[in-house]
Amino acid sequence: MHRRALLALVVLAVAHGPAASQVSTGPGPASVRDRLRADLEFLCAPPLEGRASLTAGADAAAWFLASEFRKIGLAPANGDAYLQRFDLVPLDLARDRTLVQVIHRGRETRFEPNAVFLPEPTRPVNLALDVAFAGFGITAPELGYDDYAGIDVRGKAVLVFDHEPQEHDPASVFNGTGFTLHANAWSKTRNAERHGAAAVLLVTEPATMHRSAPRAPGRANAPPQALARSELGIPRFTVPPAAAEALLAGTGRDGAAWQAEIERSLSPVSRALDGVRVVLSAENRVKTARASWNVAGLLPGQDPTLRDETILVTAHYDHLGVQRGRLYAGANDNASGTAALVEVARRLAGRPQPRSILFVAFGSEEQLMLGSYHYVAHPLRPLATTRAVLNLDMIGRPEAHTPESEGAYEITAARSGELNLVGAVYSRTAAAALQRAAPRAGMTLSDKFDRDSSMRALFRCDHLPFLQKDVEAVWLFGGFHPGYHEPADTIDRLDFEKMERVVALTVYAAEDLAGR
């Protein structure tokens, strides 16, 4: 659709407000479900073309949300603006200039990396480095574990295993069979950078089996993009197992043996890899950054002492766009959470609280939380006084198994009154407020995804960047379901009773957190 026509659609929605698309069956104010459906019908409309990051459809959704925040009566949160810009670069790596060369005692072997993270995608990487092996790349003083103890990695590339030790052991100090924040690639890269490393070489842990299943025929991924300037300052190359074995060849053990030793003793086996160097090269073909947007509106607190503290209610509005001629409308992922966010703001706008409540709709979540990573690096309210984040994503469908999840865990959110909390293990105060609110909203809550690593739920949504900054953040999550990231994620499949209950749950919990 031409941008002019798309702009006309947005202007029509803004000019006429919710009444332009509400479906109330009689006179008087629209019901909660009418308002939710009205917002969903706009966000999922074909002219928005699936709201893919860096498209006119995503821009239209952002401007629509900004107008709704203004109509609700929220104050602009970014100076006098409701929009927070962040710049992204589409990723298109030049494969002939993107490689890992392992040089061991004069012998050179070349490998194509599985993935590359570039701190500044418009600038090529060309590094020749000595190498150290740093186990799982984790420093966890609270668990008495440090892969960097006794090793100097300054100026070197560090080879680290993905995830964390004892992943399938219910008795593991690393949160049993759930994940800790240390298992995430962002955390490993940040930790390596803090220890002075110049690059990270990440490899799937060789002795751990991970769940896999055939992808659904319509399953799609988001177009790859990256922040024009990441908060992280060093590159990360995800390397194939053969590259890791070439790097470890001079140690007398293969990667599986080193992993087994770490998991047995929970002690570091890290070491400099003598006689080994790597040459790391990567270049992105795209050199121009483009704008994406977070949308933020503030309900100022009323207590003179507490109003500088903040409770965040968040969601992401982007989805997967149009791919192979098929529209990915993203009704549940995440028009459902976005519409619920707007409705929570409507409900709370007339009831100011002691603490301030900031409502943020993030862009570019499908590109691995780029909007929320930008926000935590450039917060509109200080993170030090941000007390909790309630993040709404995929809250409108009954939970059901997909091929990836079958046999991994028990379904606990299959009905309208059931919901999952992800990140509750790191968010005791926020989780307690949600548990207190649940009976009033007619809901029961499960933390099963905090005890399951198979679906990597802890690392899959906008709560994660806040947890990595030591801010309590809980993802309110209806669960996975058939049609996830497929064209079949449409409005007609949503459970509006479930959405209404999640709205009520969020309102009650936000009031609890803002008032206590």
Q: How much strand content do the residues show?
A: 15-25%
Q: Please identify the structural class as seen in this structure.
A: alpha/beta
Describe the largest sheet: 10 strands, mixed
**Tally of individual helices:** 11
Tell me the distance between the termini. 48 Å
CATH architecture of the largest domain: 3-Layer(aba) Sandwich
List low-pLDDT spans: 4-8, 11-25
The CATH class of the largest domain turns out to be: Alpha Beta
- Average pLDDT number: 94
Q: Helix proportion of residues, in percent?
A: 25-40%
Indicate how many domains the architecture comprises. Answer: 2
Radius of gyration: 23 Å
Secondary-structure blueprint:
Blueprint: H1 3-16, H2 32-43, H3 56-72, E1 75-76, E2 83-90, E3 99-104, E4 107-111, E5 115-117, E6 125-133, E7 139-140, E8 145-146, E9 157-161, H4 185-194, E10 199-203, E11 225-227, E12 236-238, H5 241-248, H6 255-265, E13 271-282, E14 290-299, E15 310-316, E16 321-323, E17 326-328, H7 331-349, E18 356-362, H8 370-377, E19 386-392, E20 418-422, H9 428-441, E21 444-446, H10 464-467, E22 473-477, H11 496-515
Parallel strand pairs: 6-9, 9-10, 10-12, 15-18, 15-19, 19-22, 20-21
Antiparallel strand pairs: 1-14, 2-11, 2-14, 3-4, 3-13, 5-12, 6-13, 7-8, 14-18, 16-17, 20-22
Helix pairs in contact: 1-3, 2-7, 2-11, 3-7, 7-11, 9-11
